[in-house]
């Protein structure tokens, strides 16, 4: 059942309350998500995006209740990814000759995913689609977050359809940003940005500046996941500019893994050292194997510095530590300091392995790593405290 937004625009997406893992298991979605699809009825009728494949049948049937599919003049695909295009094969079976407007790169991604020769019409920045009283203007948005992404601006209604930009994995029956819990909303928006868009900070900034320079009146931002920003849409744009500018808060995060608590004891000593040196800084301690990885990455995103510790296992680090370091490398965090620590029994390679990986991932190593032979004794605890003091001191 569609939700009417304006005389001409109806939300025809799918709210997915139960989704908990997205992109395989790369991204946790504790609050579910929505796949937003929009139906525009002016003199012409067009559909913007579809929904994920498992909901394809439901989507097409609901769309048929809204309109005679044969009256659909075009399908506009802002981004080829399966969560937005999954229902396309089913829809196109019913309307095989309907043109699909998308970027050149989306022709490639959609052909690669579905191997169909639909009637593709590639568009570029500045190209327009006249709907009647209103017009859609396309703006390519490469790497926000795929090479195939574009935005579409609808004049008359003053709506920016922003694909995954400004999105959140946040299922709600409320549809609009002003009707939901603001803390939850901004936490989910930040988690989305931290985990998906961080590598593309520069492109986010450039794209937002390009759009702001167009001086378009903006009443709503319609993203492809989560709520529609209708109240003060400029607020999320400002947040994006802040987040894209190598965001950090006055926070240090200590992340450790442990088998027998030795590395944890070292981590606690480090936390005490940080608090001693700088009581105002927020210090957070997490067992990285037991905390949601995407929440951890969001904490790293907020941090000015991180310290990572692992027990030494078979001359290396634990798999959970390795997994998180791999994800951090992919996100290309900038302007953050780091340090490493480990507990060991005989060879003690873990701290060195972590240090190398942090450095290769672009972190600035502000302190030399420390190690504790077995459980930390008094001297090792003192080394932990001193590491914390030195790390906190490196920001002065
Ligand atoms: C399966 C296993 C493999 C280990 N491999 C190494 C190793 O290669 N080198 C080393 O120095 N210690 C090794 N250790 C010893 C641990 O690093 C040591 O017990 C350390 O104190 C564990 O830290 P934790 O108390 O934080 O778990 C190993 C321990 C286990 C259980």
TrEMBL record:
Matching entries from Pfam families are given as: Flavodoxin_1, ODP
A single Gene Ontology molecular function, please? Answer: metal ion binding
On the tree of life, the source organism's domain of life is Bacteria
Gene3D superfamilies cross-referenced by the UniProt entry: 3.40.50.360, Ribonuclease Z/Hydroxyacylglutathione hydrolase-like
Give TM regions. none
What the record says about family reads: In the N-terminal section; belongs to the zinc metallo-hydrolase group 3 family.
Query: What's the name of the protein?
Result: Anaerobic nitric oxide reductase flavorubredoxin
Lineage of the species this protein comes from:
Bacteria, Bacillati, Bacillota, Clostridia, Eubacteriales
């Amino acid at each position: 059942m569609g939700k009417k937004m304006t005389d001409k625009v109806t939300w025809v997406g799918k709210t997915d309350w139960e989704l908990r893992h997205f992109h395989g298991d790369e991204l946790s979605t504790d609050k579910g998500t929505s796949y937003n699809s929009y139906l525009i009825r002016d003199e012409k009728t067009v559909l913007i995006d579809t929904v994920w494949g498992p909901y394809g049948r439901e989507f097409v049937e609901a769309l048929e209740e809204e309109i005679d599919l044969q009256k659909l003049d075009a399908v506009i695909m802002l981004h080829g990814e399966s969560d937005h295009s999954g229902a396309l094969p089913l829809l196109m079976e019913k309307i095989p000759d309907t043109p699909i407007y998308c970027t050149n790169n989306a022709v490639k991604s959609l052909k690669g995913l579905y191997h169909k020769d639909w009637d593709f019409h590639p568009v570029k920045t500045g190209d327009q689609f006249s709907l009647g009283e209103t017009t859609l203007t396309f703006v390519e948005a490469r790497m926000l977050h795929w090479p195939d992404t574009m935005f579409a601006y609808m004049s008359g209604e003053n709506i920016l359809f922003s694909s995954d930009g400004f999105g959140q994995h946040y299922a709600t029956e409320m549809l609009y940003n002003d009707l939901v819990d603001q803390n939850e909303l901004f936490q989910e928006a930040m988690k989305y940005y931290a985990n998906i868009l961080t590598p593309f900070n520069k492109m986010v900034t450039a794209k937002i500046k390009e759009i702001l320079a167009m001086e378009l009146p903006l009443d709503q931002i319609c993203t492809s996941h989560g709520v529609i920003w209708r109240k003060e849409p400029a607020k999320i744009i400002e947040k994006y500019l802040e987040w894209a500018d190598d965001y950090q808060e006055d926070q240090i995060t200590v992340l450790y893994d442990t088998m027998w608590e030795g590395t944890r004891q070292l981590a606690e000593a480090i936390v005490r050292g940080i608090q001693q040196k700088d009581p105002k800084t927020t210090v957070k301690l997490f067992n990285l194997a037991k905390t949601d990885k995407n929440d951890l990455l969001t904490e790293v995103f907020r941090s000015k510095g991180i310290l990572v510790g692992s027990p030494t296992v078979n001359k290396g680090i634990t798999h959970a530590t390795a997994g998180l370091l791999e994800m951090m490398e992919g996100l290309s965090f900038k302007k953050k300091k780091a340090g490493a620590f480990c507990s060991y029994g005989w060879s003690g390679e873990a701290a060195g392995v972590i240090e190398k990986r942090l450095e290769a991932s672009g972190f600035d190593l502000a302190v030399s790593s420390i190690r504790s032979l077995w459980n930390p004794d008094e001297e090792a605890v003192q080394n932990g405290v001193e590491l914390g003091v030195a790390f906190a001191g490196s920001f002065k």
